[in-house]
Amino acid sequence: TYCNVIPFFFYVNPNAFKKFSSFCILYLLEHGEEYIFTLPCAYARSILTIPWVELGGKVNIHCAKSGYSATVTFHTKPFYGGKLHRVTAEVKHNPTNTVVCKAQGEWNGILEFSYSNGETKVIDTTKLPTIRKKIRPISKQGPFESRHLWQHVTAALKEGDIDVATEHKHVLEERQRKEERQRATTNTLWKPKYFIKEVMGKIIGNRNVQSLHLNIFMTFQF
């Protein structure tokens, strides 16, 4: 799985939104397929009163091997009326330029699918089974595993103590800055455990990363 995410934050009173200049590449090993897709924007509404979050924008998905592509549009709520979390989508078979499926509904609620053969399907996402994360107890985690590293911040947030959470967060950040300065002084390169740096121009399947306006991105290995 390749993933490049470059977030940009904007603030427009009384809202804020995060725009991702990014793309991801997902490999389905059992099918030998490679999917390239973009990400929507995240909007934080009414941050000065009672904040809430929604997604907005268009997501493009493409698979060169199967010849299928899809466009998913996350619709933001109008100022007056309208529904929250509304989404529409269209799946196309590119070799024949045929729309094979359309979808509409709420991405966190009920989705209705209509196929070119007349078949329809309804999925209620709220009734789908939830697969919980399986993690080791904190006592058995390494010092740099995220839940172990941020356990005191998490505990303070659960208690609603923002000041204590901020203090622990500051300690972690200062420690990281100190370690970074030490590496710079000794010319020691940081070696990530799961990420590998890739350079612009690398060929991924039938797509050239350079065409995606990307300078450097990271490879995450599962």
UniProtKB/TrEMBL annotation:
- Provide any one GO MF term from the record: cholesterol binding
| Record-annotated membrane-spanning stretches | none
Name of one Pfam family that matches: Oxysterol_BP
Entry GO terms, CC: cytosol; membrane
Q: InterPro entries of this UniProt entry? A: OSBP_sf, Oxysterol-bd
Which domain of life does the protein's organism represent? Answer: Eukaryota
Classification via Gene3D superfamilies: 2.40.160.120, 3.30.70.3490
SUPFAM superfamilies recorded: Oxysterol-binding protein-like
Q: What is this protein called?
A: Oxysterol binding protein like 10
The species is Laticauda laticaudata (Blue-ringed sea krait)
Write the lineage as a comma-separated list. Eukaryota, Metazoa, Chordata, Craniata, Vertebrata
